[in-house]
Write a structure and sequence with these properties.
The complex is a heterodimer of chains A (about 325) and B (about 500).
Chain A (H helix, E strand, L loop, with lengths): L1 H16 L9 E6 L3 H15 L2 E6 L2 H11 L7 E4 L2 H9 L3 E2 L3 H4 L13 E14 L22 E2 L6 H14 L1 H14 L8 H9 L5 E5 H10 L5 E4 L11 E10 L5 H12 L1 H9 L4 E2 L23 H6 L1 H11 L3
Parallel strand pairs in A: 1-2, 1-3, 6-7
Antiparallel strand pairs in A: 3-9, 4-9, 5-7, 5-8, 5-9, 5-10
Helix pairs in contact in A: 2-11, 6-7, 6-13, 8-9
Chain B lengths: L3 H11 L3 H10 L1 H32 E2 L3 H9 L6 H11 L5 H10 L11 H26 L2 H9 L4 H30 L2 H6 L4 H12 L2 H27 L15 E2 L2 H35 L6 H33 L3 H10 L1 H4 L2 H15 L7 H25 L3 H9 L4 H12 L1 H17 L2 H6 L7 H9 L4 H28 L1
Classes of the chains: A alpha/beta (about 325), B mainly alpha (about 500).
């Protein structure tokens, strides 16, 4: 029984020595649903400039939003960062955020932030098509062509639980109507041939390897793949650009200050830095997204923002219509 | 305490209106039920085949490299299911090692087996789970007294008949316990099924919470899952209860027979094949990518913090869990009553409830009942104890059941009080079982992902959390070193367990 006693003593020792994990007064806590490595460069620059430390607490955007909601005023989070405007808008509707000062956010297009300025977009991504250059896909001009019977078993899409997929469908539903979207989904389901992908990177890979002819992805996944394999036989199609078509679907990654943050001044300062020219360059460039300030240039490899027409759907709609979208997806039985 | 998440689930699902229940039934339930039961069954059969055959070969034959073989059968426990699934999706892709090997063997005409299917998920979960069956079956085979087998042989039974009619029935309590652990792992598994997109209850519950932020529908589904698991557990208990075997501790130990040359080849072919897929291939893959990371200088100082966090968490949580589990196991194995069974089944709920649901239940409870505890490790510890309590109860109870009551009675007759008896007789006798319980919980805790992801204190990243973060961005070079550390981190724990076994 000596062993047991020893164990008890060790245990007590460990518990005593256990670091009390609590953010210090001058540290900001960010609940982040965005990949660490795309946030760290800008945080490093911010800390260097202001001396304010930032702790990233990463998990799924939606899980963190759930957590923020349950925690209420006891939350340790000062900011909430998500890759999906839908989550930010839902958080706003649940009353989890506080409005940002007008003078900070008005450098950003009103379409890319909340009506009441409780959240602000930081970088934009386009929902584009990736095609294999080795097969004839000249008839594919619109996302709605993904339901074309000629593409039977030849399209690659992510499963319908994917946040970007849901946000895209919300845009189509708003811009083209529920009925058209329903029929389109049924066609996509058929053309996907019972096989969806759990990651966008795998969609691009399936198209590059020739297993599938067309895929639906966020634009930066294509360039990420081309980084590794510059000779891959794939190209980007920016869909729905003709007159009368809906324009390409957009989504933004954005940030909000928690309503119960005890360091709102520092938190606001962080947001101010993120929307500044320098912050925008760092934040958008690392993932080759489009900066939300028109005076900051996007990466040169992606199609210039002014050459494409974006859909007129407001970002806030992505949150307001999310449940309606999921209802539709379930009614169709999207895998 | 174990009932907190259950109460949360029941409460939330009461808020679910009857129309929503009907809608759930129409859209999801039948498929989910079929998928989940099917997966549980196939994995049970798979782990039984792998676990019993390897345990029998190792326990009954003496051969070169036996210790190594034991280790190879246990080591797969160190690999979490999401890492398993991740590695195999990578291995079986066009440019993966297995993919290339397949094309070399069969040419382009035969497609590489698709792992994104139910069979794929069953394959992964069997590899990840059979070690539980192996461990318990082996312990039981070593402890069973040889006299029964010898008697059967003298009566003219063939070796196969001995196995089928004597050893297998004797093994039944161990197999039932092992299978229960495996099936409960399957029911609550989130890592592999989400990676492979196989719709089970856990995945669907997660989707409801994620996509819709619909905690009520998630709770409704959880309730169905819990009911199902309880039915399974009662069934398992029923099979186990019908027979109980005691062996006196003074019985002769088994002398394993030396394997002949031909047997040696067969044994190593069998075990080697299992080990290749269950451990060696994944390990080599992880080493390969870790080496890439090392060369590219990607491993920074914070990496060691993640490792330390994981180990501290595992240590503290495992100790707590074993201590909490002991009274439950003791109570149930000594006093059979309606109440004790109730306790036991209640304590197994944490294991079958999906991690995110346990996490939400615990957060809600702590915030409303004891808000001062919020923010530190306490919440996470609580959730982990709730989740892994049944694992500790199972293995301690298995040890308690093999303890002949007469030994305890002797202690009492000799004048020891109940507490002294517990301390000086029972605990030393079941030390092996307790150590096994501790190690099993430790390993599960440091592999645990969904609850840790939600409940960890701010900035307290553990290895699985990092694996999740890096692999969701396809950063193999960063995910692999974390997986490697996870495997290395479990080694000491496994070593302690094996040493305790040998000492017995």
């Amino acid at each position: 029984m000596k062993m047991l006693k020893k164990l008890g003593v060790t245990l007590l020792g460990v518990m005593m020595a256990m670091p009390v994990v609590q953010a210090a007064d001058d540290e900001l806590v960010v609940y982040s649903g965005r990949s660490d490595k795309f946030v760290k460069p800008v945080i490093k620059a911010f800390t260097k400039e202001t001396g304010i430390k930032v702790i990233l607490h990463s998990a799924k955007s939606t899980a963190l939003l759930n957590k923020l909601k349950i925690e209420g005023e006891r939350t340790h989070a000062d900011l909430y960062l998500s890759n999906d405007a839908g989550n930010l808008q839902l958080g706003n509707q649940m009353g989890l955020f506080q409005p940002l000062p007008k003078n900070i956010v008005d450098v950003i297009d009103p379409q890319l932030r909340a009506e009441d300025d409780t959240w602000v977009g930081l970088s934009a991504r386009a929902r584009v098509l990736v095609v294999n250059t080795g097969v004839d896909t000249s008839f594919v001009k619109s996302v709605f062509d993904l339901a074309d019977p000629r593409l039977k078993d030849r399209i690659a899409v992510t499963h319908s639980g994917n946040g970007s997929f849901i946000a895209g469908v919300t845009v189509y539903m708003e811009a083209a109507g529920v009925e058209k979207t329903r029929q389109w989904l049924a066609g996509v389901k058929k053309n996907a041939g019972g096989r969806t992908f759990n990651k966008h990177s795998k969609v691009v890979k399936a198209v590059a390897s020739g297993k599938r002819a067309v895929g639906l992805v966020n634009h930066y996944y294509i360039y990420r793949y081309l980084d590794k394999k510059p000779d891959a036989p794939i190209k980007v199609i920016v869909p729905d650009q003709a007159d009368g078509e809906i324009g390409v679907a957009w989504n933004v990654a954005g940030i909000a200050v928690s309503k119960y943050s005890k360091k709102s001044a520092a938190a606001t300062q962080f947001v101010e830095y993120l929307v500044s020219e320098k912050g925008q360059q760092l934040f958008a460039e690392v993932n080759r997204e489009y900066p939300v300030r028109s005076d900051v240039a996007a990466s040169a490899v992606i199609p210039a923002a002014d050459t494409m027409r974006a859909s007129a759907v407001e970002m806030a709609t992505l949150g307001k219509q999310r449940n309606a979208t999921i209802d539709l997806l379930e009614a169709v039985g999207m895998p | 305490m174990a009932a907190i998440p259950l109460l949360f689930v029941i409460y939330s699902s009461f808020q679910l209106s009857s129309e929503r229940w009907v809608a759930l039934w129409d859209t999801r339930l039948p498929d989910l039920l079929a998928n989940t039961v099917w997966l549980g069954f196939v994995v049970a059969v798979g782990s039984l085949l792998l676990g019993v055959s390897s345990a029998w070969l190792i326990a009954r034959r003496e051969f070169v490299g036996r210790t190594l073989a034991i280790w190879l059968m246990v080591l797969p426990l160190a690999i979490p299911t999401y890492v398993f699934a991740y590695i195999y999706t990578s291995l079986l892709s066009d440019e993966g090692w297995l993919g290339l090997a397949w094309q070399m063997l069969f040419g382009d005409s035969v497609a590489i087996p698709d792992i994104y299917t139910g069979w794929g998920a069953a394959f992964i979960l069997s590899l990840a789970g059979f070690s539980y069956v192996f461990l318990l079956a082996r312990t039981s085979l070593l402890q069973s007294s040889p006299s029964m087998e010898e008697a059967a042989r003298m009566q003219g039974a063939t070796p196969f008949e001995v196995f089928w009619r004597v050893q297998l029935p004797l093994l039944r309590p161990a197999l039932a316990a092992g299978l229960a652990v495996v099936v409960l792992h399957v029911l609550s598994d989130f890592g592999a099924v989400s990676m492979l997109q196989f719709q089970t209850f856990t995945l669907s519950i997660y989707m409801q919470m994620e996509g819709r932020m619909d905690n009520q529908a998630a709770a409704g589904l959880s309730l169905v899952l819990v009911t199902m698991s309880l039915m399974f557990l009662v069934l398992e208990r029923f099979f186990r209860n019908r027979q109980r075997y005691f062996s006196s501790s003074r019985a002769r130990k088994f002398q394993a027979r030396k394997a002949s040359g031909r047997e040696l080849v067969v044994i190593w072919a069998c075990l080697g094949l299992i080990a290749l897929f269950a451990f060696i291939l994944p390990l080599v893959w992880v080493l390969h990518w870790s080496w890439q990371a090392w060369r590219a200088d990607l491993i920074g100082a914070e990496f060691w913090d993640y490792t330390r966090n994981s180990l501290v968490l595992g240590f503290v949580a495992a100790t707590f869990t074993v201590v909490v589990a002991l009274p439950v196991a003791l109570y149930h194995s000594r006093i059979r009553s309606w109440l004790s069974s109730c306790y036991l089944h209640l304590s197994s709920i944490g294991f079958v409830l999906p991690g995110p649901v346990v996490a939400l239940g615990v957060i809600t409870f702590v915030l409303t009942q004891m808000p001062l505890l919020y923010g530190g490790l306490a919440v996470l510890l609580m959730a982990l104890v709730v989740r892994f309590l049944p694992l500790a109860v199972q293995s301690q109870e298995a040890a308690l059941q093999q303890l002949t009551p007469s030994i305890e009675q002797a202690g009492r007759v000799l004048g020891a009080g109940p507490l002294e008896n517990l301390w000086r007789v029972t605990l030393p006798m079941i030390r092996g079982g307790m150590v096994t319980a501790w190690v099993l919980v430790f390993i599960d805790v440091i592999k645990e992902l969904p609850a840790t992801l939600i409940l960890r204190p701010i900035g307290y990243d553990t290895l699985p959390v990092r694996i999740w973060i890096e692999s969701s961005e396809e950063m193999l070079e960063l995910a692999a070193p974390a997986a490697l550390m996870l495997i290395l981190g479990t080694l000491p724990a496994l070593w302690i367990m094996m040493r305790a076994e040998r000492a017995r």
